[in-house]
Amino acid sequence: MAEAFLRELAGDEFEIVSAGAEAGRLDPLAVAAMREAGIDISSAQTKVVDPYLRQRFHYVITLCDREKERSCPIFPGAIWRQHWPVESPVALQQAGLDHGIAVRHARDEIRRHVVVCRKAPSHRTGERIINMNVKETVREKYGAAARRVKSGGSSCCGSAASSCGCADPITSNLYDANETGNVPEEAVLASLGCGNPTALANLNPGETVLDLGSGGGIDVLLSAQRVGPTGKAYGLDMTDEMLALARENQRKAGVDNVEFLKGEIENIPLPDNSVDVIISNCVINLSGDKDRVLSEAFRVLKPGGRFAVSDVVVRGEVPAEVRRSMELWVGCIAGAMEEYEYVRKLAKAGFVGIDVEPTRVYSIQDARQFLTGEGIDVDAIAPQVEGRFMSAFIRAEKPSFRINSSKECCGPACCS
Questions:
Q1: 163-174 pLDDT per residue, tens
Q2: Is the Cβ–Cβ distance between 372 and 382 less than 8 Å?
Q3: Which of 24, 297, 322, 357 has the fewest other C-beta atoms within 10 Å?
Q4: How far apart are CA 401 and CA 252, in angstroms?
């Protein structure tokens, strides 16, 4: 059904394939339900997903019933991936719903996902099938930043910052001399953050810390110092060049209680309930699937674990010209969430004790700096962003208790 809706929407723009757990003919009730929607799928057959798992796709959409989301397949070759949860027709039927009605319910859920997906902004002209594909651009930009550092240059947050010697309003003056003096210079030069989460996270000896989007490793190395030899600091990054730079910085620093992992923050390669503290520095705003990031953060935190990240957040509406700019997204601005949206998403993931503390509010002059060179009318935009962008320290906790109830689970917290 998803393939049929997508073909209806964008079959002239994309080559679309679908596959599942089993091959064979479609459920006749699914054929009937789609015919009601004006789409004929009677000649289609399902395909087995296994041959596709290692292929390189531009976009992958996984669609599993909500009870089996964790078992959805991973496509390592996918540039962009999104998950669509739906209610299983089989589960609805077992709950007493007529089979035909259950299939129509699944059809309507899938159609809603497709409609929302179509309305999302795209890096293509006009409205298209999926969200802006930032992941590959992030990988390219941060890989280039790592190469600049290794060649003796510095890394900056966005192209405008690069042109002005990295004295941009977001990434400058985040660490004091004591901190920068205790890590390799390359770790400082590779910093692309908007805050100093390790200074605000109240790390304790013996704790396990995970840095989402660890870059050149500065926050991981500082965290390792704070948790001491009985603790552990993980850094997670998807960029090979940054990982190589971070591991070289670890070697130079002579730190043993550090491990850098390759992976994406939407799919953290650590087990459930394994981390005491999650930190991140201006990285979550770069993700096109922030709900997934926060859900994964909740999963790997131990009960009572702490979420303590620095990020750019927005108060009020952001001009459409800024939202559409891929360069600004990578430059830590256009991917920023509105303050209350951030709080809402954290609560949806199951977090409690949520607090957003502004650490740096940007002025019109700051806006002029970070919009320069992006093809945007700075004079027209700058007044609209006055005081709306800010670096903030976002705190939250995973509940330390388990909710036991005979009622249906009401959210992630009841599974903690």
A1: 333 445 555 556
A2: no
A3: 24
A4: 41
For 311, half-sphere exposure in the C-beta direction (CA atoms, 13 angstrom radius) is 29
Could you give the CA distance from residue 215 to residue 32 in angstroms, rounded to a whole number? 51
pLDDT recorded at residue 275: 97
The residues spanned by each domain of the chain are 2-119, 134-415
Q: For position 305, what pLDDT does the model report?
A: 96
| Domains 2-119 and 134-415 fall in the same CATH topology | yes
Rounded to two decimals, what is the model's pTM? 0.60
Query: Which secondary structure element, helix H or strand E, spans residue 162, and what is its range?
Result: helix 159-163
The class that CATH gives domain 134-415 is alpha beta
The CATH fold assigned to 2-119 is: Rossmann fold (3.40.50)
Tokens for 261, please give them.
């992992």
Does residue 192 contact residue 185 with C-beta atoms inside 8 Å?
no
Q: Which amino acid is at 306?
A: R
Ramachandran quadrant class, 316 (left: phi over 0; alpha: psi -120 to 50; beta: rest): left
Q: Which of 388, 381, 387 is nearest to 319 (CA)?
A: 381
Lowest mean pLDDT among 44-58, 132-146, 280-294, 391-405: 132-146
Q: Can you tell me the mean pLDDT for 311-326?
A: 68
